[in-house]
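Re: [ENG-882] Designed sequences occasionally contain unexpected residues at chain ends

Forwarding the minimal case from QA. Structure tokens:
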């Protein structure tokens, strides 16, 4: 088998388009099969940087098949990221584990910078009844909010990457257990509780075994359940790191917001307020309030016009977001989803609307078009 560098095929690679040939390592072992879709430009660049190869015969057969792919939508990138993490977080012994986590960190950072409102919308409107995948989705949601807050706090890039990486991997040893507990509800068994108590240290052990040497990342994973003063676990550390505390508070916030088999979810704005009070004004609690606003994207609201709407973008003021009407004043579904500026008196927000009261299901891509 004659191999040619993947970089020589750069002109035929498009994120969002299927590969025209397999991608191989220097020994010719197949890593990605023909037809595999590379989810983002970030992942594509990371793949090129790895020094991969293509079988010359496959490359010749695939010549001329390349087609320009339209840019991936946010929803496509978000779904691809969820799918990628579903496999990745269950295989920390894979030799490419850390580099692939790094790729996901890069994608999360890009989505947060370019599509913050849609990212928050995706978290708020997530279907939490997909209990079995709770651990994976929770990791992605925590990492996404950590990314948003890290940018707001202007953390340097190295600290940003350590924080987001830690958020993705802090529950590495109990990913499956999280899904089981979310689906079953109730108290964990003694053996399950033992695994929960040990998971910060066990997750760090798995990361070290994978080759991670970043002390900031490892420290954040080990300390993300520690509490200032020494009342946390597993080590009773009195002064845990700032990243670990950001992870802890965001973890608590999202756990409140996510429903489980034995409890309903708490609306995001209520969960943020409760977190702010519980954290006694901790900067992360305050930042979450600012980041989400009073009416975060994904929140259902009743307008002065009588319409029910869903918030899609934060506004200049916390109480005046941009919304899209989904039902008229009689409760009939609207087909054209007109935008409403809630800063205008006729479309001002009167109240929030419980999720269970809204029967209309809307494709988010239409809302953000």
């Amino acid at each position: 088998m004659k191999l040619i560098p993947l970089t020589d095929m750069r002109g035929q690679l498009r994120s969002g388009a299927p590969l025209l040939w397999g991608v191989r390592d220097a020994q010719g072992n197949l890593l990605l099969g023909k037809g595999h879709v590379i989810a983002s430009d970030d992942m594509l660049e990371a793949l090129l940087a790895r020094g991969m190869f293509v079988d010359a015969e496959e490359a010749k057969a695939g010549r001329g098949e390349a087609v320009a792919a339209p840019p991936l939508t946010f929803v496509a990138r978000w779904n691809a990221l969820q799918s990628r993490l579903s496999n990745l977080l269950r295989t920390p012994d894979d030799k490419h584990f850390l580099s692939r986590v790094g790729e996901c960190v890069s994608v999360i950072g890009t989505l947060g910078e370019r599509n913050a409102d849609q990212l928050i919308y995706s978290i708020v409107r997530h279907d939490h009844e997909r209990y079995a995948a709770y651990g994976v989705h929770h990791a992605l949601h925590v990492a996404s909010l950590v990314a948003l807050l890290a940018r707001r706090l202007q953390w340097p890039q190295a600290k940003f990457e350590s924080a987001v990486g830690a958020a993705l991997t802090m529950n590495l040893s109990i990913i499956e257990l999280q899904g089981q507990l979310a689906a079953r509800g109730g108290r964990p068994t003694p053996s399950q509780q033992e695994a929960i108590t040990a998971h910060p240290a066990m997750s760090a052990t798995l990361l070290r075994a994978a080759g991670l040497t970043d002390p900031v990342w490892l420290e954040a994973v080990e300390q993300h359940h520690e509490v200032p003063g020494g009342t946390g676990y597993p080590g009773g550390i009195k002064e845990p790191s700032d990243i670990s505390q950001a992870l802890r508070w965001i973890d608590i916030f999202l756990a409140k917001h996510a429903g489980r088999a034995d409890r309903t979810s708490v609306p995001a704005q209520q969960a943020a307020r409760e977190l702010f009070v519980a954290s006694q004004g901790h900067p992360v609690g305050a930042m979450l309030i600012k980041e989400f606003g009073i009416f975060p994207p994904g929140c259902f609201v009743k307008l002065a016009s009588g319409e029910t709407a869903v918030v899609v973008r934060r506004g200049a003021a916390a109480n005046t977001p941009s919304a899209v009407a989904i039902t008229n004043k009689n409760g009939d579904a609207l087909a054209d989803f007109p935008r409403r500026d809630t800063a205008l008196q006729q479309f001002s927000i009167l109240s929030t609307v419980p999720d269970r009261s809204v029967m209309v299901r809307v494709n988010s891509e239409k809302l953000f078009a």
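QA comment: On inspection the terminal residues look reasonable. The two ends are 46 Å apart (CA to CA). Proposing we downgrade this to a documentation issue.
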